[in-house]
Amino acid sequence: MTDLFNSLQKIMESFSELYTRQATLLQDRFGEVFTYYMNELSSVKEVADMQGRMAGEFVKQEQRLLHRKEQLFAEAKVATWELRPEDVKALDLSKVGNNKVVMFPLMLPRETSEVVAALIAHGYYTNKLLTESRRTDLKNYRTLRKHFKTAGEEFATLMKDVRGES
Length: 166
What we know:
Layout: H1 2-75, H2 85-90, H3 93-96, H4 100-103, H5 109-163
Helix pairs in contact: 1-5
């Protein structure tokens, strides 16, 4: 009966040692990786926040501009449209002055160029977000793959040690 209890004690001690060493291995191997990964994501998050702000700014500017153009077009006062002199010379306003499709792109050129600049900024941050996401994903994939491979090898060695294989 004592031999049975001694055997059970040895089994329990080996399980205890195995679990302790596995926990230590997991902490050592993956704690730093996931901490780094979370910190790495902060750069992507910053770019995503900026891209979101740029998208919101673009939409607001575009809506304000379209609303203002609608109001000015409804008033039908061509002088308030701030048309460029070259556009006025190129068009016969008596024929196209009441055509919204033709006139909207020409109205308020300064404000229109500001909205285009906001669109370009939004596009830049969208592209930057994609690039940054791909960079961090590829880098983190390689790092995690390496750590999992190394950890797997260490677990295998650990199991052999506990079983007494060498």
